[in-house]
């Protein structure tokens, strides 16, 4: 079973780890994994703008030097490690979500999108996803198709 997000039943629970079926054939569980990728991909995209690394000290330049190209390795490594740690079903689901958000599939075609992701997977899913220029936007679009968003996830990180 592919588990990426679910909807909560009104006030019955505030626990994010309880999966409630949305609809037959639709994904289950909370959007945290997708939102984690969205947030980290945005961080990586901002860092990729990158100023040239200089000899300044982070505390002397008010931590601006962490946004240099050399500073990106931690965020990129964290994101790569996170995606690589997913099981194959989760990787297929993440790819399907990206395709739905990009408009290649409709949300109602969830099962077909996952099956296509499974059949087309030949290399590194991580490299494929991170090589997609608007990955964060596509994943958020897909979440919106299922009536979800990263708003709560992002607010919890502030």
Gist of the model:
Helices cover 51% and strands 3% of the residues. It has helices spanning 32-49, 73-84, 88-102, 110-120, 125-130, 135-145, 151-157, and strands at 3-5, 28-29. It has a two-stranded parallel sheet with strand order 1-2.
Per-chain topology:
Blueprint: E1 3-5, E2 28-29, H1 32-49, H2 73-84, H3 88-102, H4 110-120, H5 125-130, H6 135-145, H7 151-157
Parallel strand pairs: 1-2
Helix pairs in contact: 1-2, 1-6, 3-4, 3-6
Description:
- There is one protein chain.
- With 158 residues, this protein is mainly alpha-helical.
- The protein has a two-stranded parallel ribbon.
- The protein has helices at residues 32-49, 73-84, 88-102, 110-120, 125-130, 135-145, 151-157; strands at residues 3-5, 28-29.
- The protein is built from seven helices and two strands, in the order E-E-H-H-H-H-H-H-H.
- It has one domain (16-157).
- Helix 1 packs antiparallel against helix 6 and helix 3 packs across helix 6.
- The longest helix has 18 residues, at 32-49.
- It is 51% helix and 3% strand.
Classify the oligomer: single chain
**Total domain units:** 1
Strand order of the largest sheet: 1-2
> What class do helices, strands and sheet pairing give?
mainly alpha
What attributes does this structure have?
51% helix, two-stranded parallel sheet, 158 residues
